[in-house]
Amino acid sequence: MASRLYTNSPQNLYFLASPTKPRSFKSSVIVRCASIATSPNRWSLHGMSALVTGGTRGIGRAIVEELVCLGAKVHTCARNETELKDCLRDWNRSGFQGDGSVCDVSDRAQRESLMETVSSLFRGKLHILVNNVGTNIRKPMVDFTPEEFSTLLSTNFESVFHLCQLAYPMLRATEAGCVVSISSVSGFVSLKNMSVS
C-alpha cells in the first residue's frame, strides 16, 4: 500500500476552489483531494479505518491526509496537544473530519488508552495501523545516559511492538488488516552521531 500512496504526477494537481489559478493554503489536503477527483484510476479506502501515530507533521501528516482523501476514517495521535488541535482545525476547515488524541507512544499506559479509544471509535475494527513515531538523540553512543537509551528503545522499538500487539484483535476482525511501520534511513546507512537511533 505505501508504494501507491503518491502515484499522481504533480501536473495533475490543482485546487478544487480554483482549477485555473492555484492559491496557497496551509494544508496540502485540498491539493491531494483534487488529485483524486481528477484521477479515475485511483483506488479507494472508503469504509476502512486507520490509526496513524505521529500524524501532525512531516510524513505522518502526509499519510493522514492521503488516507483521508482516499476515503478512510483516520485517527491520529501526537504528544503535543496544541499541534494536534491546530491540525484538526486545519483539516476540518479543508472539508474533512479528522479525529485525534494526545498520546506519548513511549508510555505503555498511554498506548493502551489510545488503543481503547481507537477500538471504541472504530467499533473494534482497524484496517490500517501506521507506526510513524520515531525519535533520535544526536550524540556519540558513549555519551548516552541510561534514560536516553531507554527513551530511544521505548519510542522506536517497544511502542511499535506493543501497538501491533494491542491492534491485533482489531486488525484480525477486519480480515484484511495492514501494518505499516515507518523507519529511519539510519537503520540502513551509518550516520554520524546516529548509531543508536
Structure overview:
The chain has 197 residues and is an alpha/beta fold. Helix content is 40%, strand content 12%. The chain contains five helices and five strands. It has helices spanning 29-38, 58-69, 81-93, 108-121, 146-174; strands at 49-53, 73-78, 99-102, 128-131, 178-181. Strands 3-2-1-4-5 form a five-stranded parallel sheet, sandwiched between helices. Helix 4 (108-121) runs parallel beside helix 5 (146-174). The longest helix is centred in the C-terminal third of the chain and has 29 residues, at 146-174. It is globular and about 50 Å long. Keywords: Chloroplast, NADP, Oxidoreductase, Plastid. Belongs to the short-chain dehydrogenases/reductases (SDR) family. SDR65C subfamily. This is 3-oxoacyl-[acyl-carrier-protein] reductase. It is found in: Plastid, Chloroplast. It holds the Pfam family adh_short.
What does the secondary structure layout of this molecule look like, with pairings?
Blueprint: H1 29-38, E1 49-53, H2 58-69, E2 73-78, H3 81-93, E3 99-102, H4 108-121, E4 128-131, H5 146-174, E5 178-181
